[in-house]
Amino acid sequence: MAAAYLQFAAFLPFSPALEYDSYMDAPHIAATTRWRWIFGIWLGIGLFDATQNVVVMKAEGMHHAWSHLFVTLLLAWLPWALATPTVLRLGRRYPPVTLRPLSTWLVHIGACAIIGLIYSGWGATLEVLLDPWAYPSGPRPFAGIFLTKFYNGLLASAFLYSAILIVSHLLDSRARLAMQQTETARLNEQLSKAQLDALRRQIEPHFLFNTLNAIAGFVREHKTDEAVSMIAGLSDFLRHVVQDSDRQQVPLGEEMDFLQKYLDIQKVRFADRLQLSMDVPKELFAAQVPSLILQPMVENAVKHGIAKRAQGGKIRIAAFRSNGMLTLSIYNDGPTLPTEPDKASCGIGIANVRTRLQSLYGDGFELNMHSKNPGGVEVLVSVPFREN
User: Fold this and answer.
1) 190: number of CA atoms within 13 Å, CB side?
2) Dist CA 374 CA 371 (whole Å)
3) Mean pLDDT confidence for 306-325
4) CA gap 133, 341 in Å, rounded
5) Cis (ω within 30 of 0) for the bond into 85?
6) 287: confidence class by pLDDT, cuts 50, 70, 90
7) Domains of the chain, with CATH numbers?
8) Alpha carbon distance 376, 365 (integer Å)
């Protein structure tokens, strides 16, 4: 019988139905599934206990009514099977995880005693009706069997009741942890979306005003073709911003297309002052990257490396794969970074990128900005290489 208790304690923690019943919103389905698991577990315990006792007794040369004994030992576990859902509910309503309040322990002690009484009475009834031991004088009186089973089974009842409570607490703790992890993931996703929305709002006024001013300048100078070209490019750019507003990650090829729309507008604006160089292999186009990861860094390069110089400058965009990471490089040949730490910031665009990368990849990314010799600034972003 002790082996059956150990089997119960070892097997029940793997019952997902109990965890499922605690937190799902389909009570009928959950209750049905729960009862199936409880019935299956206790049936397995009963079969193990009955088979073990009958086989051992027969091997030792004892003489009993074997079929009656097998049925008696099998059905003896029925009260515990029926009581298990009640024990689980009591464990959740009165969790015995602290010494106080005393009423919690009284509830569980009382419930354990009642189940023990029912278990003993049921077992005594089976023995009186089936006479499994086949004594020559017939079965003992009900009262004697009942009292013997109750007193001898006190420790076993306490062990079983405690095992059910412990297993229930472990399953509920695991379910709560899973729910917390799910909620954390959901909040992180919402944070990433909020950060992406903030980045889009940052792009629209800052970039839009400069572009509209450039269009107005072309109109005043009667440069109709340039104005129409910039209006068409701005339209495509804004359409892309709106259409992809819900996607956190996109293929690198799409991100490059979006960046090209931005650069086309800037090339019209800066003319020969802006020189572009791209070295992004097409085999990397399927790699997943955060949406709008390149545009703010290129905008930063234009603002700090090109716009303030009369002769303009060059921007180089590259990508390569190494050690399971995809690295994006944005370089401009403008002024190097300030040496004073409090002046080295390049606006909220880069800070926003860093925060988004943190929320998407945790510590699994790198973002570095450094000066290059003899001049210029390079930004390197490395993220895990993933494809669709």
Assistant:
1) 6
2) 9
3) 88
4) 89
5) no
6) very high
7) 2-152 (no CATH), 191-384 (3.30.565.10)
8) 23
